[in-house]
Design goal:
CATH superfamily of the largest domain: Alpha/Beta hydrolase fold, catalytic domain
Radius of gyration: 19 Å
Helix content: 25-40%
Strand content: 15-25%
Number of helices: 11
Distance between the termini: 35 Å
Number of domains: 2
Order of helices and strands: EEEHEEEHEHEHHHHHHEHEH
Strand order of the largest sheet: 1-2-4-3-7-8-9-10
Number of strands: 10
CATH class of the largest domain: Alpha Beta
CATH architecture of the largest domain: 3-Layer(aba) Sandwich
CATH topology of the largest domain: Rossmann fold
Mean pLDDT: 97
Length: 336
């Protein structure tokens, strides 16, 4: 049942793409990937802007097209925004980028796979060929949490490809959000003698997934994204010593090189090429992300990068309603 039965309904198409760039990933993840594509009511896609939804950790793109109790999934939200005139018509693609380690940061990794290349070289061109949408100057990317990280990093690294980005509660400020997480990781991994393969396999074999274990596998996913070691099981190694939790300087430096607050120092001026950049975060975000968001806002101001920055009175959870603000900004800019 839809929340609003009267709004004209767009169409969801499910495409399947057999990726070439994901072949050989150390996680053994499948290369065949679903991509759900939203086409607004009364359109076939031709000439419309294309938004790409990169979802947060534990999610895959099609989760945002699933029915949602007591609320709206993203296509329903788009239906309402378009029907009300708040947002021009636009296509939205929802690629499945889920992994055995529970999620994605949307960067290239010899362990996780070439997810940056997957989006730029395969998924987006595939959707554009199928529907005649998007193209140079008419592509936007948006996401929350790890998806917000992906949107921010893709905007920084590829402003010639993406022309708009929305970053909701995105991962940035790694020292504040990640450093304290290594202690519970060490406590948990001692159970397998730091055999990463054994721990991950046990995680998947469990009859019930514990919330605390999701935080552990999230940190393993970050390790395999930011500092992979192809010689290790699933490419995982930690940037701290296993016995005393002391930072290993060169490994932690690899992590920090992927922090958007580091990347913006070199790539920030390129963001001026964007037609729209939106950044927000809840002011009581439980992962400390608001402090990184504030630092990014300050740096963008220093660099003279046009952007919209907002804080809102909420935490990190269940904040999809913020898309009511961001999506119209992106689509209006891409439609101009």
């Amino acid at each position: 049942m839809r929340k609003d039965q009267n709004t004209p309904r767009g169409t969801i198409h499910r495409l399947s793409l057999d990726s070439q760039v994901l072949k050989g990933n150390l996680l053994g993840d499948p290369t065949e990937r679903a991509i759900d594509v939203y086409v607004p009511h009364g359109h076939d896609g031709k000439g419309l802007p294309l938004l790409v939804d990169v979802v947060g950790f534990t999610g895959g793109g099609p989760i945002h097209t699933n029915w949602k109790n007591f609320g709206e999934n993203v296509p329903e939200r788009a239906d309402r925004l378009i029907a009300s005139g708040a947002m021009p018509p636009a296509m939205i693609a929802f690629p499945d980028c889920f992994t055995k380690l529970g999620g994605n940061q949307y960067v290239n990794s010899p362990a996780m796979g070439r997810w940056d290349d997957f989006l730029l070289q395969e998924a987006v061109p595939f959707v554009e060929r199928q529907f005649g949408c998007g193209g140079t100057g008419k592509r936007g990317i948006f996401g929350k949490s790890s998806g917000g990280y992906g949107a921010m990093v893709h905007a920084l690294l590829h402003p010639e490809f993406w022309s708009a980005a929305a970053v909701h509660s995105g991962d940035m400020g790694f020292e504040l959000m990640y450093r304290h997480e290594f202690v519970p990781v060490l406590r948990e991994l001692t159970k397998t003698g730091f055999d990463f393969r054994a721990w991950v396999d046990r995680f998947w074999e469990a009859k019930k997934t514990k919330d605390s274990d999701v935080h552990i596998i999230m940190m393993l996913a970050q390790a395999a994204s930011f500092d992979p070691d192809p010689s290790q099981p699933y490419g995982i190694r930690l940037p701290v010593t296993h016995d005393t939790c002391e930072v290993i300087a060169d490994r932690w430096a690899n992590w920090m090189s992927w922090d958007p607050l580091t990347l913006v120092e070199k790539h920030g001026p390129g963001l001026k090429k964007l037609k729209a950049l939106y950044v927000d975060c809840g002011d009581i975000d439980q992962y400390n992300l608001v402090y990184g968001a504030r630092r990014m806002h300050r740096e963008l101001d220093r660099l003279g990068v046009p952007h919209t920055y907002e804080e809102f009175p909420d935490n990190h959870s269940s904040v999809d309603y913020r898309m009511d603000v961001s999506l119209p900004i992106l689509v209006k800019a891409l439609s101009a």
